[in-house]
Design brief:
This protein has 435 residues and is an alpha/beta fold. The strands form five sheets. Strands 2-1-3-4-5 form a five-stranded parallel β-sheet, with helices on both faces.
């Protein structure tokens, strides 16, 4: 297979070239956007860095895909940028992988591209609105990248979406990502179905007229009306009572509703995204949830993986959450002890990312120094030995060498047998900081 690797890190280009040539691929490499436009003409697959010294990777992507016989393009980046992920996929990228690159991920992408013929390749048209993406969906696990690819695809229509995932996995973040990718600048109205009292459902969603019931002293717009052309997010839809399920179904079918006590039909213009941690298939079978509403809501289904299925993302999440927590508490936490990361990666996280945030919040509030040396887990008995990825092993080794040489990049490069430029890039890619 003819492959082109474009990255401003020469070490990455050379490493991929050697490893892929050993697997009988024909590989060309380049360090900038100009090289990409020159070398990719004959390529079947291009690995393209988002951050290039001369042209934006997204601009290069657009130009590569403009040709009739365009190659498959896989974006690579060292930044934690969900916005760029969604934008790249909307523009037509076939896939998206993060640095530090793993050969497993690279080979997996190649297998998928080989499985598709060029004639079968479907290009995705870019949306007009490119300022998209949630800035707090953190991770590079393939399941999570798959979720972001779904977000990009789903955002190009306004069909019903059902987001499924355990409590604490970030269902609202994904809903907001879909909203921002499809309706930026429009209202996003969230409704927690589990928290509404039985007597206020209809009024909350549809609004009411003055005098419609005792205490209705004025006309009030409901959540659907307030959302206008934006999004209504119905969280924990599985807890919606049966009478309200029937009312919601009618509104979705007719695309209109009336305020309580009113007779004027109001157009339902908003997109409806629902989410639940419950097994709605089982709820339908047991008669607790309407089958017709279920199928109306789940035109598209997004499953968010629990944290225990993507433990490789825990170091990234810890860095991200500690930054936010430190700012909120007025603390300056600059690092985490390696043994702490091992404990966090060995825990099963029944409460998912929300539980991780709570654990870190509690631990930061008790921390006396600039480095988090311990954490208090809710269920210590659930800790298990943790297996780490090759990239995590590299991160720890580089940090160990840097600490040994007092963060002297030149000396570290000599020991690691790589260039100082590569060491600095690894420091940035892994978010390493000296004590």
């Amino acid at each position: 297979m003819k492959i082109c690797v474009i990255d401003d890190d020469q070490a990455i280009c050379r490493s991929l070239q050697l490893q892929l040539q050993a697997r009988d691929h024909e590989v060309a490499t380049g360090l900038c956007g100009g090289d990409a436009l020159r070398l990719a003409a004959d390529a079947e697959l291009v690995f393209l860095d988002l951050q290039l010294p001369d042209i934006s990777g997204l601009r290069v992507l657009e130009q590569l895909l403009a040709s009739e016989d365009a190659p498959a393009v896989v974006m690579i980046t060292g930044r934690q940028d969900m916005e760029a992920t969604i934008t790249a996929i909307q523009k037509g990228a076939s896939d998206y992988i993060r640095k530090p690159l793993s050969m497993e991920a690279v080979l997996g992408v190649i297998e998928k591209v080989q499985a598709r013929s060029r004639r079968a390749r479907v290009k995705v048209r870019a949306l007009k609105h490119q300022d998209t993406g949630p800035r707090e969906i953190v991770g590079r696990d393939r399941q999570l990248i798959g979720v972001l690819k779904q977000v990009a695809r789903i955002s190009q229509s306004r069909v019903g979406v059902l987001i499924q995932g355990e409590s604490g996995t970030g269902k609202e973040l994904v809903a907001r990502a879909i909203h921002e990718a499809s309706s930026p600048g429009k209202p996003f109205v969230a409704v927690n179905c589990a928290s509404l009292a039985p007597g206020v459902w209809e009024s909350e969603l549809f609004g009411h007229e003055k005098g419609a019931f005792t205490g209705a002293s004025r006309q009030r717009a409901g959540r659907f009306e307030v959302a206008e052309d934006g999004t209504v997010f119905l969280d924990e839809i599985g807890d919606m009572p049966a009478p309200m399920q029937a009312m919601l179904l009618r509104a979705l079918q007719e695309r209109e509703f009336e305020r309580v006590g009113g007779h004027e039909a109001i157009c339902l213009r908003a997109r409806v995204i629902a989410a639940t941690h419950r097994d709605l298939d089982q709820a339908v079978d047991s008669g607790d949830f309407r089958a017709d509403l279920f199928h109306r809501l789940k035109v598209e289904t997004v499953r968010i993986p629990p944290l225990r299925e993507r433990k490789g993302d825990i170091p990234l999440l810890v860095d991200h959450l500690l930054h936010r927590i430190s700012h909120a508490l007025g603390r300056r936490i600059e690092g985490v002890a390696e043994r702490v990361l091992l404990r966090l990666q060995g825990y099963e996280w029944p409460g998912n990312v929300r539980e991780l945030e709570n654990v870190l919040m509690r631990s930061v509030s008790r921390c006396d120094g600039a480095v988090l040396l311990d954490v208090v887990l809710d269920k210590p008995g659930d800790e298990k030995p943790s297996l780490i990825s090759l990239s995590e092993c590299e991160r720890r080794h580089i940090r160990h060498i840097l600490e040994h040489v007092d963060w002297n990049v030149t000396r570290a490069a000599r020991i690691l047998e790589i260039s100082p430029t590569t060491v600095r890039k690894k420091i940035a890619d892994y978010g390493l900081k000296g004590s």
